[in-house]
Amino acid sequence: MTPAELKATREALGFTIDALAAYLKTTGRSIRHWEQGKFAIPDSAADKLRALELLTSAYVDDLVRQLTDEGTTTATTYRDDETFHAAHPDRSHFPAAWHRAVAKRATSRMRGVRIDYPD
Known about the structure:
By secondary structure, the chain is mainly alpha-helical. The chain has a single domain (about 5-115), classed as Putative cytoplasmic protein. It has helices spanning about 5-10, 15-25, 30-35, 45-70, 80-85, 95-105; strands at about 75, 115. The protein starts with a helix and ends with a strand. It is elongated and about 50 Å long.
């Protein structure tokens, strides 16, 4: 994985540097160094990020199925981590921005479905 791929993947997944550092159990400084090309990206970090991409794609597919099955025209997402984690405690290791990215990817595959907050 190149530094550019790391940064592009992190951003596409909706992760900040600090959120990705927490997910990978490293430091924000390490993420910044990897993205700047100062240090090689460890294979273990690249592998975990690729696995996160696959998991995210599966969540996108699941959300598309759910919205289709329910016949709803609104995908609900969350403004902040606190609200997201309260609604989905099983996903507390993901930031709300990740969920917004999932919602955007899912709704871009569907006509007439919008994204909104629960309130």
